[in-house]
Task: inverse folding
């Protein structure tokens, strides 16, 4: 059994004032199935890069194993080639028969290895790259968010596959996947790092108990500090008042006083002052014991939403709908009938390629069309599409529609796109272009635990999770009758997912969602529609 030892690790990126890691030390075993948790931007992917030796750092990382990282980066010039042609570039010394064996375990057809990579779906790409990752004999796998963009069936396949493996580090925000696959967790808390046996649910229950105890201890210390301060103040005021009586007295009013009384009063005052010093020392000890109690408490702010109430019961309606693209023989979606009522939160499910995003684009296109047949850009008033990339205003232009698809008149929609690649520039420009109040927007990002230091950066430098939070925050600030979110939780950390769940359950907006997080869907969906 080998170990990965991290000692006094300190690291920050060039040009950054804040350390990502500072004097961090811990030990993990390479036969653990280790879940790696932490909020977006805390340094999970950075630590995986440090293990691979990509950056210089202070301190020491000691390991007797070589590391291999998922997902592999496929160069653009290789996208048109089959994976078998550049297998050795992805993993040196990789043997094709081992890859095919792993693909069989994943339930993937061998022909995927001999098809152009760009022709593979997200799920097929994930299966092929995981098969390559685990085809080595001595490498220790580092797996970074393998289930993003995957449908539920492929997630189940990946979950079963990883459950049967031994020894890896898995970065994921999918609670269901973590519970099924890991036996230890490495957690980047707000101020500390902890390693614990068990899966996500085990750690979460322990954390809630630990946080509850810390809060109770903190309240106890606060009460004790308050009591000691009051006692010290009373004693100090008595001592000061008594001290003032040492010199000068009225012999008529105080016939029993004499000059010798001065020493007696001074002795009493000295004892009182000593008690004040003792109180202050006890207050210092209480404050010292209180320090750090709440440093790792996760107490996320309650998010707000501003849904509008639509004047009719039905917002969307489809009957015998068929959707296809120009140049394709087979329709993406056919014989589809559906309606969305006010207050419903409908979750669209289906395998990749079943038409979920196509249906959303067709709905958005229909709304744009209603607001201006001659000028589609008039639809911006309807698509309070703060996060709707400019190119996507024509998102339904190449969709061929048959059957009925009706959207409510005057319907205002807020849309979260699954793609974040269009985000660029600073947050100030982003707010100005979309008519958002910058101070409210930044306050909401802070509630989603984005550090203030990020606000001055260009969005191209944000992590994927931080980019997604930008889109979600923009949508939350937009009053709308209908919220259409297409895979909103990709890359979003566990704690923010829970915040968003609580917000949706509190405000009960009308929503149409595509999301493959099982726990999220179970909590917030009022109805599930499978394509």
Result:
């Amino acid at each position: 059994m080998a170990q990965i030892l991290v000692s006094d690790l300190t690291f920050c990126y060039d040009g950054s004032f804040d350390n990502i890691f500072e004097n961090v030390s811990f030990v993990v075993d390479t036969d653990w199935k280790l879940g790696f948790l932490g909020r977006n931007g805390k340094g999970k992917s950075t630590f995986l890069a440090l293990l691979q030796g990509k950056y210089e750092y202070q301190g020491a990382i000691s390991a007797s194993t070589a590391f291999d990282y998922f997902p592999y980066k496929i160069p653009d010039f290789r996208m048109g080639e089959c994976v078998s042609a550049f297998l050795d570039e992805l993993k040196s010394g990789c043997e094709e028969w081992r890859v095919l064996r792993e693909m069989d375990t994943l339930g993937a057809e061998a022909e995927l290895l001999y098809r152009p990579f760009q022709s593979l779906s997200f799920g097929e790409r994930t299966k092929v790259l995981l098969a390559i990752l685990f085809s080595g004999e001595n490498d220790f796998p580092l797996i970074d968010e393998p289930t993003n963009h995957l449908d539920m069936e492929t997630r189940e396949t990946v979950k079963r596959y990883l459950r049967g493996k031994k020894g890896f580090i898995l970065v994921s925000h999918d609670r269901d996947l973590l519970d099924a696959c890991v036996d230890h967790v490495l957690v980047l808390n707000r101020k500390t790092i902890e390693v614990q046996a068990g899966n996500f649910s085990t750690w979460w229950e322990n954390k809630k108990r630990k946080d509850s105890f810390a809060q109770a201890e903190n309240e106890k210390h606060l009460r004790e500090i308050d009591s000691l301060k009051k006692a010290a103040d009373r004693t100090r005021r008595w001592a000061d008042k008594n001290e003032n009586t040492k010199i000068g007295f009225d012999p008529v009013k105080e016939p029993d006083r004499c000059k010798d009384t001065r020493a007696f009063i001074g002795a009493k005052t000295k004892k009182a002052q000593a008690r004040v010093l003792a109180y202050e020392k006890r207050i210092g000890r209480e404050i010292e014991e209180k320090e750090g109690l709440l440093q790792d408490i996760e107490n996320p702010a309650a998010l707000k939403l501003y849904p509008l109430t639509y004047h009719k019961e039905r917002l969307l309606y489809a009957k015998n709908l068929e959707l296809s693209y120009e140049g394709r023989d087979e329709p993406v979606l056919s014989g589809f009938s559906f309606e969305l009522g006010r207050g419903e939160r409908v979750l669209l499910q289906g395998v990749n390629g079943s038409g979920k995003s196509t249906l959303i684009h067709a709905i958005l296109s229909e709304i744009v069309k209603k607001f201006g047949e001659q000028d589609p850009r008039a639809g911006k008033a309807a698509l309070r599409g703060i996060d709707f990339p400019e190119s996507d205003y024509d998102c339904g232009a190449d969709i061929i529609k048959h059957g009925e698809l009706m959207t409510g008149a005057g319907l205002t929609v807020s849309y979260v796109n699954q793609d974040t690649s269009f985000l660029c520039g600073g947050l100030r420009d982003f707010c100005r272009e979309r008519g958002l109040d910058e101070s409210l927007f930044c306050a909401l990002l802070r509630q989603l635990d984005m550090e203030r230091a990020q606000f001055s950066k260009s969005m191209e430098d944000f992590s994927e999770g931080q980019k997604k939070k930008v889109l979600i925050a923009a949508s939350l600030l937009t009053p709308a009758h209908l919220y259409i979110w297409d895979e909103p939780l990709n890359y979003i950390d566990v704690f923010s997912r829970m915040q968003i769940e609580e917000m949706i359950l509190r405000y009960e907006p009308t929503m149409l969602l595509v999301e493959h997080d099982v726990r999220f869907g179970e909590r917030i969906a009022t109805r599930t529609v499978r394509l």
Remarks:
- Confidence is low (pLDDT under 50) at residues 373-382, 384-394.
- The radius of gyration is 31 Å.
- The longest strand covers residues 314-325.
